[in-house]
Specification:
The complex is a heterodimer of chains A (424) and B (253). Chain A contains 15 helices and twelve strands. With 424 residues, chain A is of the alpha+beta class. Helices cover 41% and strands 18% of the residues of chain A. Chain A is globular and about 65 Å long. In chain A, the strands form four sheets. Chain A has a four-stranded mixed β-sheet with strand order 3-6-5-4, with no helix packed on it. Chain A has a three-stranded antiparallel β-sheet with strand order 7-8-9. Chain B contains eight helices and ten strands. Chain B has a five-stranded parallel β-sheet with strand order 7-6-8-9-10, sandwiched between helices. The radius of gyration of chain B is 19 Å and the shape is globular. Classes of the chains: A alpha+beta (424), B alpha/beta (253). At the A-B interface, helix 2, helix 3, helix 6 and helix 7 of A face helix 1, strand 6, helix 5 and helix 6 of B.
């Protein structure tokens, strides 16, 4: 089988079986990435959470994938039928995207999400980059709020050694997770007009970003850690207390809970079918977490990461799931702050010519997949990034069905998906 | 219920920062601010630094002098590691009003942040400055760190500044991102919808020069491609909130 790449080269990847239909997807086996090779063929990378193994299949542009990526056009008829268009420039300070709500009276019948405004050609620039620093820097800027996870994934996929220990990397990854969850819970609170938590969380999120900056010099962890240890323990514990005080306030406020509950529900069977990942998937009752399913070498996570609480897939579940994950991440960071930083682990990967390298990192939204394909001389010929948002945007469209438009902000915030991560 | 909220407010305390009214900003120890280049950097030394630079053409030679273009630099500090003659200070006041002022030349003297040469700005927006933000293909980091200015920690409204939802209400457009081809029209329309006089602020390496995405066939390499020449440049990847806040205050005063 010949596969054509960006630079027009052709590489043989004869080990990959060609199948006629998409292999079973679901909680145990899930699609990590699917991308076009040539001639209408798609390469699908599957992850088997039971065996912790990755599998690759080449197939023709199947119905399932076509359905997944197409935007359903819906034409409602009748006096109450109308369409509301929003974007690409939104009212707030956020990324561009275009939403179309097809409504019947007050109810949203379907939501069509159009992305692509942020397309910058990141994958191609990574292939053409003049040095590894540039490759990592571009990977970091694919989705700005996921910089640390992206740097980690890119370094694994491209076999670029990072000059810090696994414990520091893990600590930074958890700080990134915490900062984002805190920001989103605050924004959720603001969207239902419960301002105390919104105000507190806005400030507390900054504390976690500043802790990241204490290691990296940059609030988003750009450029990686500049030091192996920083004196943040007391700061971290103090902020943790303030954070859970603010969050407990929100979760004990009946008015806020009432708005969250039974709003924007994505039931488990739907979530499994469309392949939700990360926080959104776990909030619908799925138990996927790449930190457990596809642990990277040298990872030492012992905590039970998947929350045992019953999750129903509504906004409240997604908020609760984030709360639970915040608890777990705080425990993890506390443990990592105690441990002596382990020696820098050299990668054991040896990148073969004509090979595909897949790196899976559990970013704060869910699994982030970076794929590097090498040509006959071992040179990088194609790079593919699959942001967790790729899997989850359809979940947001699903959550809106039957809701009122006024519920869009809280549904959107409960997912908080990346536009640029998808557009690249 | 209200007592619970009031009690919470007391517990959390007053948390608006003292910057810039009373003190300087609290910057991390490894903060990478304005670069400083020692005189006598040879072409060879510069090429060595260029070898690790993630940006294209951020470092260059001009009339025998080494130069660093902050409009292209992403402030990663990698060049300073290989070349001891390149240093990054903790100077966070990075914003300038002219594109050429972003270029730091070797052996430059002491730096004082420039004042806004457009004297018409202060009487117009000195007391009330409304901004419209457009993310034109950004990675969301510039947007997030600009958004942070609205939180109680930075409290932008103290300075009479506000982010508005409509370009009709805005005095300036705050552009982030390298201006992707797919956002160029929306950015242009936003600018055209603003009433005159209208200002353009380019924030972040991407908006200034295209940053890491300069030269990509999907982007137009910066704000200048689509809008008139920016009235202010705020370098950084992303600019620190203190850098952005100081810049905005300096712009209107």
């Amino acid at each position: 089988m010949n596969i054509e790449f960006l630079n027009g080269e052709s590489v043989k990847l004869s080990d990959i079986p060609t199948v006629l239909e998409a292999p079973r997807k679901g909680e145990v086996t899930r699609t990590l990435a699917s991308f076009k090779l040539f001639d209408g063929r798609f390469l699908t990378i599957l992850g088997n959470a039971e065996t912790h193994k990755l599998e690759a299949y080449a197939m023709t542009y199947g119905d399932e994938e076509a359905e997944r990526y197409s935007t359903p056009a819906s034409f409602l008829k009748g006096e109450a039928a109308h369409e509301v268009a929003v974007g690409p420039v939104h009212a707030g300070v956020i990324e561009p995207g275009h939403f179309r709500f097809q409504c019947m009276g007050e109810d949203v019948h379907s939501l069509a999400i159009t992305l692509g405004y942020q397309t910058r050609g990141a994958e191609e620039l990574i292939v053409k980059a003049h040095n590894d620093e540039r490759r990592l820097a571009i990977a970091e800027t694919v989705a700005g709020d996921t910089s640390i996870a992206a740097r980690l994934a890119a370094s694994k996929a491209l076999n670029i050694p990072l000059s810090h220990s696994n414990s520091t990397l893990q600590l930074l990854l958890e700080l990134e997770r915490i900062a984002n969850h805190v920001g989103d819970l605050g924004a959720l609170s603001g969207d239902v007009a419960y301002l105390p938590t919104a105000a507190f969380c806005g400030r507390i999120r900054g504390e976690y970003l500043n802790m990241t900056a204490a290691y990296c010099g940059n609030r988003f962890g750009r450029g990686g850690a500049k030091r192996e240890s920083a004196d943040i323990k007391e700061w971290f514990l103090r902020t943790k207390k303030e954070l859970f005080h603010a969050l407990d306030l929100l979760f004990s406020e009946e008015g806020a809970i009432d708005r969250f509950e039974h709003t924007g529900t994505v039931p488990k069977d739907v979530a499994s079918k469309i392949g939700l990942v990360g926080v959104a998937g776990r909030a619908s009752g799925l138990t996927t977490d790449s930190r457990i399913d596809f642990p990277m070498e040298g990872e030492t996570i012992t905590e039970t990461l998947v929350s045992e609480k019953k999750m129903t897939g509504d906004v409240l579940s997604r908020a609760r799931q984030r709360y639970e994950e915040l608890k777990i991440s705080h425990a993890l960071v506390e443990r990592l702050l105690e441990t002596e930083s382990t020696a820098v682990q050299p990668s054991t990967l040896s990148l073969q010519p004509s090979s595909i390298t897949v790196a899976v990192v559990e970013a704060w939204r869910g699994e982030l997949v970076h794929i590097a394909i090498r040509g006959e001389n071992g040179e990088l010929v194609q790079y593919k990034i699959v942001d967790p948002s790729v899997h989850n945007w359809l979940g947001l469209a699903q959550a809106l069905r039957g809701e009122q438009i006024s519920n869009f902000p809280i549904c959107n915030k409960s997912f908080n998906l990346s536009y640029c991560g998808v557009d690249k | 219920m209200i007592f619970k909220s009031l009690l919470a407010r007391l517990t959390q305390g007053y948390r608006t920062g003292t910057f810039p009214t009373l003190t300087g900003p609290k910057l991390p120890e490894d903060f990478i601010g304005r670069p400083q280049l020692e005189e006598g950097i040879t072409e060879e030394e510069l090429n060595q630094a260029k070898g690790v630079c993630p940006s294209v053409d951020a470092l260059f030679m001009d009339e025998g002098k080494a130069c660093l273009d902050m409009g292209k630099c992403i402030f990663c500090g990698k060049c300073a590691k290989v070349s001891p003659k390149i240093k990054f200070t903790k100077e966070y006041r990075l914003a300038v009003f002219k594109r050429e002022d972003l270029v730091v030349k070797a052996g430059e003297g002491e730096y004082t942040p420039p004042k806004n040469p457009n004297t018409k700005v202060k009487p117009l927006v000195g007391k009330s400055f409304q901004l419209r933000e457009v993310s034109a293909g950004g990675c969301a980091a510039c947007e997030l760190d600009f958004n942070v200015l609205g939180t109680l920690a930075w409290d932008l409204s103290r300075f009479g500044m506000k982010v508005v939802a409509s370009p009709r209400h805005a005095d300036a457009v705050y552009v982030t991102g390298p201006v992707s081809k797919n956002m160029a029209l929306a950015l242009k329309k936003t600018y055209e919808a603003m009433s005159e006089p209208r200002y353009v602020i380019a924030a972040g390496a991407c908006a200034i020069s295209g940053g890491l995405y300069a030269g990509s066939h999907e982007t137009l390499s910066g704000t200048g491609s689509t809008l008139p020449t920016p009235d202010m440049y705020i370098p950084g990847c992303p600019p620190h909130p203190a850098t952005a806040l100081e810049a905005l205050i300096r712009f209107k005063e």
